[in-house]
Each structure stands twice: as structure tokens, then as C-alpha cells.
Write a structure and sequence with these properties.
The structure is a single chain. This protein is α+β, with helices and mostly antiparallel strands. It is built from six helices and six strands. Strand 4 and strand 5 form a beta hairpin. Helix 3 packs across helix 6. It is globular and about 40 Å long.
């Protein structure tokens, strides 16, 4: 049941009196502020949100993405984990990256079945990071056949705020996951770049 707020007659009269006083006070003080101050109040940051702040935020991001994707497009038992940035061998195997400069966190989302060619990566960057350079290294160096017996047909990446989202797998899956990732970023007021895409020979 929704909570209702009821104003009695005395309450309404009192509120009207308070509003009148506030309006008069506002008029009296309007000369103390210049037009620039008035115009710049409550203006949203045009850059929007630039980073997800934690592993929990990334997990919520992936949950929102996968919640909008048809079940038949996703592999069974997808699990999202945070990679240890000090374990350079594992990071390189999953992302192709060897330089951790400007990277605050890497999160890997894959099927628990090793024979499924699907992988999504979210990279949280530091403020001073060159996100475009990191994205290009990821696109150029990741191994779409790292599972040995299967190969990801397509890979796609986008910069969200100043972070990076990447996905590779079957073409239909990649397209749908990327669409939902862009929507999830926009729901967080994160600006998104054009997607960078690559089709891999099977």
C-alpha cells in the first residue's frame, strides 16, 4: 500500500504562507548573484560518469548486460572474476595485455565450460590512462583461439566513460551483448565511443 500524505486546511495555509515568504526573500536577494552564477548552477558534468568504482559495480554492470540478452545466445554457467594484475601470465593469456600502466582492474566473464568460445572483459582504468591505446592493444593482441579447439568468430570493444568493454564469441552473441553493454553504460550516464570490431577466420 502506498503511503499517502494528507495536508489539513491549517497545513495548507501554513505552507502557502511559507512559500510566499520564500518567494519574497528570493526576490530580495536576486541582486546579490550575477547571471553567470545562476546559469552554471545544476549543470551536469558533460563528461558524465567516467569509471566504475569497484568490482561490485562491474558485477552489477555484467548482471544488467546479461539480464537483457536472450538465454539461447549466452553460454551456460557464465562466471565473472577479477584478474590479479600481478599475475602477468594469466592476464596476458586472457587479454593479450602485457603492460598494466593505467589499468585499475580487469574483470573476465566467461563460460565455466572451456570448450565455449565466449569471453567478455571489462577494464577499469585510472584517470591518466590512455583508454584508446589500451583498447587497441586488447583488440590487436588478444587470442580469439585461446581455447585451442574453438575460435571466437567476432570481437568488439567500446570505450565507456574512460573504461573499456570488450566481448568476443559468436557474431550474434557479440552483437547482442555489445548492444546491452552500451545501454548499461548509458543508464549510468557514461559516454560511449564507436565500437571497434574484428571478424576472425574460423
Amino acid at each position: 500500500m502506498r503511503k499517502k500524505t494528507v495536508f489539513g486546511k491549517i497545513g495548507v495555509a501554513t505552507m502557502a504562507a511559507i512559500c510566499s515568504v520564500c518567494l519574497l526573500a528570493g526576490c530580495a536577494n536576486s541582486g546579490d548573484r550575477n547571471s553567470d552564477e545562476v546559469q552554471t548552477e545544476n549543470v551536469a558534468d558533460p563528461a558524465g560518469m567516467v569509471h566504475l568504482d569497484s568490482a561490485e559495480d562491474v558485477s552489477a554492470f555484467f548482471e544488467e548486460v546479461y539480464g537483457g540478452v536472450a538465454e539461447d545466445l549466452l553460454p551456460w554457467e557464465v562466471q565473472t572474476t577479477e584478474l590479479d594484475l600481478n599475475d602477468t601470465q594469466t592476464v596476458q593469456y586472457h587479454t593479450g595485455l602485457t603492460d598494466m600502466t593505467g589499468i585499475a582492474g580487469i574483470y573476465l566473464s566467461e563460460s565455466m565450460m572451456s570448450s565455449v568460445a565466449y569471453s567478455a572483459v571489462y577494464i577499469r582504468t585510472a584517470d591518466e590512462a590512455d583508454a584508446e591505446q589500451i583498447r587497441q592493444q586488447l583488440m590487436d593482441n588478444i587470442d580469439p583461439a585461446k581455447w585451442i579447439c574453438v575460435t571466437a568468430e567476432k570481437q568488439s570493444s567500446v570505450i565507456v566513460g574512460k573504461d573499456i568493454f570488450f566481448v568476443m564469441g559468436a557474431q550474434d552473441t557479440v552483437d547482442e551483448v555489445m548492444n546491452k553493454a552500451v545501454a548499461a553504460a548509458k543508464s549510468r550516464e557514461m559516454n560511449t565511443s564507436e565500437a571497434s570490431e574484428k571478424i576472425n577466420p574460423i
